[in-house]
């Protein structure tokens, strides 16, 4: 009808949204033909500026986080000690991190052909899509949040 409709769907990432609609019995072709974009987001707690300290994460945490040892040299790891400003949590405030998948013909065709998620992720990456985890790790690199927080709110692929 020409109306722009926004809807919310509980999913871990943009790729899970397609599975949700398929599971609900929505025709894939009709769904993809009407879809312009999918945005997935998470809220990440921000390190309290009043009590933030630099720290070096353990090798085990880096490995569990699948963060290459060589890559973390450019990271400014910070953690909040806890103070009256953050009520002892070490965090104060939140920031949204998200991934946006804009559908083009190539992506639409892959979805209709029921391409595996791995292939859809590769296609999205070629089209400039950054995953939620990549965006959240950028906040860790700048010292705005902790690696533990990113691991808590994002799924590792």
Runs in which pLDDT lies below 50 for 5 or more consecutive residues are none
Widest sheet: strand ordering: 1-4
Helical segment tally?
Answer: 7
Mean of residue pLDDT?
90
Radius of gyration: 19 Å
User: What sort of overall outline do the alpha carbons produce when their principal axes are compared?
Assistant: elongated
Order of helices and strands: HHEEHEEHHHH
Could you describe the largest sheet, including whether it forms a barrel? 2 strands, antiparallel
What does this protein structure show overall?
- The structure is a single chain.
- This protein is α+β, with helices and mostly antiparallel strands.
- It is 37% helix and 18% strand.
- It is built from seven helices and four strands.
- The chain has helices spanning 14-23, 28-34, 59-64, 105-112, 117-126, 132-141, 147-153, and strands at residues 37-47, 52-54, 78-80, 91-102.
- A two-stranded antiparallel ribbon has the order 1-4. It has a two-stranded antiparallel ribbon with strand order 2-3.
- Helix 4 runs antiparallel to helix 5.
- The longest helix is centred in the N-terminal third of the chain and has 10 residues, at 14-23.
- The radius of gyration is 19 Å and the shape is elongated.
- The model has no long low-confidence stretch (mean pLDDT 90).
Topology of this protein?
Elements: H1 14-23, H2 28-34, E1 37-47, E2 52-54, H3 59-64, E3 78-80, E4 91-102, H4 105-112, H5 117-126, H6 132-141, H7 147-153
Helix pairs in contact: 4-5
């Amino acid at each position: 009808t020409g109306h722009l409709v926004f809807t919310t769907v509980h999913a871990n990432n943009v790729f899970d949204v397609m599975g949700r609609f398929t599971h609900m019995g929505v025709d894939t072709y009709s769904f993809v033909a009407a879809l312009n974009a999918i945005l997935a987001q998470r809220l990440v707690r921000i390190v309290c500026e009043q009590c933030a300290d630099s720290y070096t994460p353990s090798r085990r945490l880096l490995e569990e986080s699948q963060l290459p040892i060589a890559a973390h040299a450019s990271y400014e790891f910070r953690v909040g000690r806890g103070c009256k400003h953050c009520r002892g949590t070490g965090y104060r405030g939140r920031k949204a991190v998200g991934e946006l998948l804009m559908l083009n013909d190539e992506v639409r065709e892959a979805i209709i052909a029921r391409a595996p998620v791995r292939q859809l992720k590769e296609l999205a990456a070629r089209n400039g899509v950054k995953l939620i985890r990549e965006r959240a790790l950028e906040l860790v690199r700048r010292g705005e949040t902790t690696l533990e927080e990113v691991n808590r709110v994002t799924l590792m692929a």
